[in-house]
Amino acid sequence: MRNEKTITIMLVILSLLGTLFMIATGNLFTKKLALDVDDIAPIDFYAPYDIENTIATDNKKSLASSAVEPIFALDETILESIIARTQSLFEYVDAVIKIRDSSEFAISVDLSRQFSIPTESSTINYSQILHSKSDIPLMSSQYDLLLQASQDLLNDLEERVIVLLKEIYSVGINEADIRALDIGQMILEIGVSPMYQLVLEDIIELQLVTNLRLDEEATEELRRIASDAVEPVMVVQGEKIIGRGSRITEEAYLLLEKSGEVGNSEVDNIIQYVGGALFILVMYCFILHYVNLHKVIGKLTFGGKNLLFMLYILTLIMARLMINQNYEIIPLHVGSMIIAMLLGKQVAVLFHVITTIVTTLIFNSDMSFIIYHLVVGTMGIFVIVHMKERKDMLKIAIILGALQCVIAASIALLVGAQSSTNDIVTGAMQSFGIGMFAVIFVGGSLPMWESAFNFVTAFQLLELTNPNQPLLRRLLLEATGTYHHSLLVANLAETAANDIGANPLLARVGGYYHDIGKLTCGNYFKENQTVENPHDYLDPRSSAGIIISHVTAGMELATQYNLPKCVCDMIIQHHGQGVMQYFYIKAQNAGEENIRKEDFTYPGPKPQTKEAALIMLADVVEATTRSMQHKFGPDFTLEDLVRKMVRQKLDEGELDECPLYISDIETVIQSFTRTLKGMYHERIEYPERKENS
Predict the structure, then answer these.
(1) Distance, C-alpha 485 to centroid of its chain
(2) What is the pTM of this model?
(3) CA 506 to CA 540: how far, in whole Å?
(4) What is the extent of the structural domain holding 385?
(5) Is CB count within 10 Å lower at the N or C end of the chain?
(6) Cα Rg for the chain, rounded, in angstroms?
(7) How far is the C-alpha of 323 from the C-alpha of 316, rounded, in Å?
(8) How many structural domains does the chain have?
(9) What is the pLDDT of residue 442?
């Protein structure tokens, strides 16, 4: 046991070191050169994978952004302010005229206060007042001209100016549009008196400004959209980045840096290796914690642990040798499928996830690799476990090949938009072939793994159910009653195993062989006795010794006929450490001296697996039912008997060491009852035929 633990620890360390070595020599880590901008490239550099040329991309984005014309919005407040200034001018002119010409002192004072215009006519220069009050800088002569106009004429001039302004600003105008306007012609066309044409022309021209303002937000949004629409400039895998002897530009340096070719070589390489080692160590700690928490590895035999580590190392070696191949032709799931057949789906899925992650690091692959192998590996695990016979191999191979073909094509279409139809079809066909190869290889090599690591598969178990097996033939010929009892136990155990999720085939084989030890003294067991009972002439202690010996005798025969260990375990465990109550009580009643309970107790051990527990329960239930079937009635049913016998084993602690749950126990009781009712159903009593007299 200590040697096994030492070997297991050594295998863990070996697999850890192997993992680190494979990753370190794979594509994940690259040897960086100490180069800088303006250095001369010592070799030709090629892109190891697709890399974005960010400098070229940024330049394209900048050009696309600058090509977008600025967006201007119409500013309606411009016209409003111009009209307000125009109206203000004419209001001042009208007020000055009224002050100047008014004969009523009160009106004059009121207007002068309203517009802040002095009323002493002898000291007033009205054109200068208008020049100071108005926001439109007309000449004094033009103000004088306006002061000569009548009220009606002023109103008409104001109205015409506003109409022209509204016409001019009915659309957006910029500086060029303003320069192109012929205001004089427009005034001429509306029929203004020639005397006032120049005044109106100046009133309009002096106020003209663009009514368009830059919409910075809209402009920036359009420029962003144009920039985002630019496709990244890519340096595709295998394309030359820079040639030997060329001076390294900033653009080339950034590409080399992204490809991992340049950097602070010593520091960067150390950081890479430390990071990789830490990742693997953390992953290993998590895995060991998981398997310890769920007792995944603890349930495995020493051979099972050896198989796990050997397949792990072989898988990594295979991956390292195929590092430059397309991911579709790497049979990464072969090891997982072998484990699924020998150790079960749970261990296989965990194994496959680990190997896929590590292999992804070795290859430094993208998401296509990890998605493909996780999916096809999981499918392979769940498909291969349905291969119960050799004849199923071709059917399973075609199914897995077809599934892998579909997955490969789907991933190529999903992430490989640039892939040609020919590449997609080729990858799908390669996946189909690898899927078939994986199944055929697993099925063909399974006997080798079984023999090397002492495993039992469905194929071996099916061979053991053949009635022509030597031990079964001997049972049939030498202990007929035990043979038929074993068949019934096998039926009960197999049905119950199927109901609770145990291994039905293993339960059936255990039922067939659990009592082979009775071949050594078959007539000492009730089912094989035809006339007299030899125990009538023996003391209880001797009888108990003979009955108990069939367990050890069975183990000897199992070893002699090379039965698998799992079947041997059920032979020695199917009575657990139960006491032979019949002979023990008989010895007590006979008044024997020095009665030791140990002399009437089976050596054990107690059942360690669900299948062994089912054999124990089926054995006692079948034997008891056969002897008491005539006593069943409304007050004591078959289910009552089954429940009583199962409860008795529970109370005796015989099921304490096996992984049966309380819910499983109830399921087993119902399963036994249903099966036994089919065995002992009431038969029709056929009437005798009367002879004609």
Answers:
(1) 50
(2) 0.56
(3) 35
(4) 267-421+428-455
(5) C
(6) 50
(7) 10
(8) 3
(9) 92
